[in-house]
Input
Amino acid sequence: MLITRSRTRSERAVAAAVTMALVVAGSVALGAGPAVAADEDLRFGVTSEVPLQDYSSTLLQDISTHSLFSFSSSPNLITVVDSDTLAVRTTYPVPGTVDALTLGTEDQRLYVASRSAGTITGVDIFSGAPVYHASVSRPSTIIADDGLDLLWAYSKDNGTITGMDSADGAAIGDPITIGKNATSFAVDRSTHTLYVTTQFAHELIIIDGHTQQITRRVRLESIPRAVVVDRETHVAFVAWSSSVARVDPDPEVPLQVFETGVWSDSLVLDPTSDDVMLVDTDNGILAALDPETGVVLRHGDVPTYSRVMFDESGERLFVPNLQERSIAVLTRGTPATITSTELGGKPQHTVPFASPALSADGPGPITWSIVGRTGLGLSIDEHTGIVSGTPTYRGTFAFTVRAGNTFGYDDLLVSITIAEQPKTKPTVGHYRFVMPQIKGASIAGGIDGSTGYPAPTFTATGLPKGVTMNSGGGLDGVPKQVGLFRVRVTAKNSSGSTTKVLPMRILGQDWSTVYVNFGYSRTALNSENRKELRTLARSIRKTATMQNYDLYGLAPNTKHKSKDLKRAKKRAWAMAKYLRHVGLDWKPTYHYEVERDYSKYHSYGSSTAAVLYTYK
Output
């Protein structure tokens, strides 16, 4: 079982004592499974990225020069990064086919193995300049032991591993047969011991670098996937399936196996503790095994399909990020911790609701979410932690809210009781469309802004012929009459009823194309923005020279003839009625100087009989 909360060293000691007590009681066998941790301290999270030109298939580190070396295979390119500043120092190409790389930190060389060419090439780590070429039978893996100036070259085709002088590539001793299915390698540079795991034999093979002889074979329970060795205690750790075995340098000490719950295919030692970091590269899981207690702690998430490495301080991890073509830098931090204990507010069924903001501690930014779906019509604001929405059900429900940051997350199971909305007498709102409507044109809309619970049903009388209202207040149909209709709308529910007169004007002509004109500008008279029209009126009042008239307008289809002025006045009064109906109290005035040329006041370019409107 893998748990997602960690704890401090003192808490681990308590866990160890509890575990030992259980061993005495006969309930748990030490090493059979991880103890359960109670809370969480520091975890790793991605805090920065180093962009690369292409995907990084191999990442190496030279602690002495504070450098990272990233290899990309399309094309073959080494990118050198300053591990302190994360700045790219240089890049250089690597010729030929590259099957494996390793770093010699003391001689500052990068060793490149080419299986097809049968060579190992040593190059300067900062310039890429070749130092030597050595021939070796189809090398597929290489690993350096700097203390002995030793380079191990493994040939999968031959099933042998050969020791070479890292200075010139000369072979040292005879090839050692270990089988054609070696899966992982590790070197203890203090004892100059090589550890190799093999797939089919299920073995850990231990080779003495001084004598180049196999000194020990350790039988494992399953196919090993990774090996790492502690240079201080000389203890090796081997991962297979979801288990990790502790191999003591003393052959008399039996193998100790921990069931971790993590399918580890990469292992790395934490420099700040005795922990063995477990990496499930397929699923991007980073966990830690305390080999003293067997406690397994989830330490964060890492980019998938990548190996990880610590910097010298142990406070940062470097991981090739194949998805982003970068090196991800992970640092330790505190996961978000929810400090709220409950969800406040008093939600009611079908009433818009917003809770007080939930609170959480931890480095920001903190993002809120709901785990799964509530099914209640509620959601959470990812920035504020406010749960809001219109509840669709009544009753008591529970759901989980989550606060997360770069380093992890915390969950809170909240309970919410959605009460019945109090019953209220209904009110009648307003039309959903703008009046007037036009005879022969379809009406689509209804009543908006009504209140009352339960939701009221609507009836209406006095509608023009051809128009109907449904129980939901929706209007439909084609008006067949012209005039002003006093429509009596009634809203009714179990708490009572309310009736309101909503006038409905049906016009025989569409006046929506009538404009106010002045100085080559237009503003539609049927605009709903009264403030805009008032502003226009004040502006014209200040600048016009025409007898202090407030607005200057054109009646449609009016020719420059005195006999048409009467018809223009008639249309102007009809227009004024329309304006008053939409809430603008305009009044046409008498027009004189019919012979005056108004072309300079409008864009039509011809003399036109006009009507002036005054805004009250």
The helical segments are 9-25, 530-543, 565-581. The radius of gyration is 41 Å. The first helix runs from residue 9 to 25.
